[in-house]
Amino acid sequence: MRIPLIAGNWKMHKTVAEARDLAEGVLRGLGELQSREVVICPPFTALHALSSLIKDTPLGLGAQDVFSEPHGAYTGAISALMLRDLGCHYVIIGHSERRQIFGEDDALVNRKMHAALSHGLRTILCVGETLEQREAGQADRVVVGQVTAGLAGIEAARLSHVVIAYEPIWAIGTGKTATPADAQQMHATIRATLVELYDMSHADQLRIQYGGSVKPENIDGLMAQPDIDGALVGGASLTAHSFLRLVHFQ
Ligand code: PGA
């Protein structure tokens, strides 16, 4: 039984005061969460404030990135140790914006995975193809490659702390979503890759989220697919009203 995970990726939005307001709004509307897990990923600057706010509530806290080293001369970087210290449960790793804008490659993504997991964080490993790659018929190869590289050297025993988010880059922030059928197909491909890399039972337990313009209007169809186990949400996680609608999908 895979419990769907709905995670809000706030990206570079919200001051501390705004973050508090949004988190309080989400908490107010969360209600009894049955067979559903909900996480918010504010910017680093709001983690401390939100950590105390959501302590002892069903809402989980995640960061949007982490560096691969525990400490040292890495100006501007934040370590897994520091995120744990702040009370983070999750961290997003390898988001396409990190890969495209900040030049992260699969090798760095993999080192970040190891660092986060070894410090007890749960990881959301993001993968996804560009529009050009999809149109050239390379989407499967690209995504399978990212999954394989991202998980390199990660033992099966650690997989219970891993979530994969399939986010086609052409669907992020564009208003275009993969159809439920197209998304399901890629999720099934990812799960088949996990069977090859590990085994059936680990592949069966690992949650695969969909991300890319998930909105109240399209979430129900996506979540009805057998291999879609939640959503990683950007834009629609920035107001309590729309995020709560997503959390309470049908
Ligand atoms: P979006 O972002 O929902 O705004 O498309 C998703 C993401 O980048 O995680």
Structural shape: globular
As a whole number of angstroms, the C-alpha radius of gyration is: 17 Å
Oligomer: single chain
Distance between the termini: 17 Å
Which percent bin holds the helix content?
40-55%
Number of helices: 11
- How much of the sequence lies in strands comes to 15-25%
H/E element string? EHEHEHEHHEHHEHHEHEH
Residue windows where pLDDT falls under 50 for at least 5 positions: none
Q: Characterize the main sheet.
A: 8 strands, parallel, barrel
Report strand order across the widest sheet: 1-2-3-4-5-6-7-8
Structural class: alpha/beta
Average pLDDT rating: 96
**Strand segment count:** 8
**Ions and ligands:** 2-phosphoglycolic acid
Give your account of this protein's structure:
This protein is α/β, with parallel strands linked by helices. Helices cover 42% and strands 16% of the residues. The protein has 11 helices and 8 strands. The protein has helices at 16-30, 44-54, 80-85, 96-101, 106-118, 131-135, 139-150, 180-197, 200-205, 219-223, 240-247, and strands spanning 5-9, 37-41, 59-63, 90-93, 122-127, 162-166, 207-211, 230-233. It has an 8-stranded parallel β-barrel with strand order 1-2-3-4-5-6-7-8, surrounded by 6 helices. β7 (207-211), α10 (219-223) and β8 form a beta-alpha-beta unit. α1 (16-30) runs parallel beside α2 (44-54) and α7 (139-150) crosses α8 (180-197). It is globular. The model has no long low-confidence stretch (mean pLDDT 96). The site of 2-phosphoglycolic acid has 13 residues, from β8.
